[in-house]
Amino acid sequence: MCVIKTKPRKAFRRNAMSKKTNMPNTYSQIYLQFIFVVKGRENLIKESFREELQKYITGIIQNKGQKLLSIYANPDHIHFFVSFKKLDISVSQFVKEIKTSSTSFINEKRFVLGRFHWQEGYGCFSYAKSQKETVVHYIENQKEHHKKENFRTEYLKFLKVFEIQYDERYLFEFYD
Questions:
Q1: Left (φ > 0), alpha (ψ -120 to 50) or beta: where does 84 sit?
Q2: Are the CB atoms for 72 and 55 separated by under 8 Å?
Q3: Burial letters 115-140, b for 16+ CB under 10 A, else e
Q4: What are φ and ψ of residue 160, in 5° steps?
Q5: Per-residue confidence (pLDDT) for residue 170, from 0 to 100
Q6: Which of 1, 20, 103, 163 is most buried (most C-beta within 10 Å)?
Q7: pLDDT recorded at residue 111
Q8: What is the pLDDT of residues 132-169, one digit of tens each?
Q9: Among 68, 46, 71, 34, which Cα is nearest to 155's?
Q10: What is the model's pTM?
């Protein structure tokens, strides 16, 4: 048997790895409108704390590295429009954190009698940059909008316009 001895190999180093290089970054810009509803569709979000709740939710969104473009908390549901720049969190996790934190905030501040909860589920709708101002205006004018159209009609229009197939059994609880 013949054994050939060789020198141990030195670790292979690529020139690219040994030099400091600038790696390309990830860039994105996604505009999303979110809608969620108070459990039981009760009118629990009162004018007396609406702005404080909106500021609190704004802080959550900013702490997640996103930019809030518009928010309006109706007595029984909320709309907010976000410019997503960082994609390090899923939409469902983002919503979960906002719902969980804002629920705790409302309950800790004792803004409502009993316990506050959001309904399960949410609506999330995407827009082009060219639609940004229209959506901001729409959300800022929610109070006037709902004098003409109830929430059920509004939400079903969203589902139709965005061509979302749905099962009536799994929509928000509608009482109007």
A1: beta
A2: no
A3: ebbbbeebbbbeeeeeeeeebbebbe
A4: -70, -50
A5: 80
A6: 103
A7: 97
A8: 999 999 999 999 999 999 888 999 999 999 999 988 88
A9: 34
A10: 0.82
The model's pLDDT over 11-67, given as tens digits with 9 standing for 90+, comes to 555 555 556 667 777 778 899 999 999 998 899 999 999 999 999 999 999 999 999
